[in-house]
Fold:
Amino acid sequence: MEMDERKIRILQAIINDYIDTAEPVGSRTIAKKYDLGVSSATIRNEMADLEEMGYLEQLHSSSGRKPSDKGYRLYVDNLMEIQSLSPIEEEIIRTHILKSALYEMDKVIKQATNILAELTRLTCIVKSYSGRRSCIKSIQLINVDGNNILIVIIADTGIIKNSLVKLKKPADTDILLKLTNILNARLNNLTIEQINLEVINALKIDLKGYEDIFDAIIPVLYESLNSIDNCDIYMEGTTNIFNYPEYNDIKKAKDFLALIDNKDKVKNLINSTDRISIRIGEENFLEDARDCSVITAVYSLKNRPLGTIGVIGPTRMKYSRVVSMLGKIIGEVNNILNEEFKDE
Structure:
């Protein structure tokens, strides 16, 4: 059976109507609301063909039809027109994200997620950058008092870790400066995963004569770096799902909330390396997410992917608007991050 121009126009009208109303669509509705130049009977026959082809579903024999995952996929890939944002929406995104630009990177990302949830009225998730992709920008050893020194680790992504270390005997400022220079010479611009046994052994040789300090700071260094590496999930708009009548069904709502409460599942769900990725219904490999669509985008620093911002909601989401919003926000985030850390 051929997917001709008339079927495509009818399918597009059905999807647009269902996205707006959440009600199964009948042939008479399409004939009245959309100027397709064909009769209700013709539309009904075409709808039957579209159902047979797998693009539409009918819940009951007497009901109208709704798009299937296959129908949404055709719509997203070939029929959807990206919706332009209003000047007000663009200004909201720009000014809100810029306000957070003077703070740490995670503040910028969280603010972006907050705006996205507010504007899309969906659940928005950020999978924060993995520290293994962060390079060490600087390590400082600072004399606090007596036997106590402070280790300050700064990553190129703006993360700062402070750890207090107690030495067996005091170390004066000149020694700490010398050791700071050695640490930076060995570790500067390395990612966490590049600091292997070979690097540590070389560092131990460089710090010969200061074994007590080496033994004290290396475990703390690893602990700090591993804490940077923890991948965090941050969410906004977790109750936005109740804006959608599909989730008036208590079981469906509880299943959705259980899904987003499971951080491991959410991490896998929004895992992506694409600029913009759209997964619809059955395309989500998690059984719990088969009634959802997930749209994700990657944010980057100096063309190095750092993390993902995603939107999750019903398959009946306004794809065009969400894609437009997400694209704009990712663009602003990337601009700010690369401007803030351009010299690092």
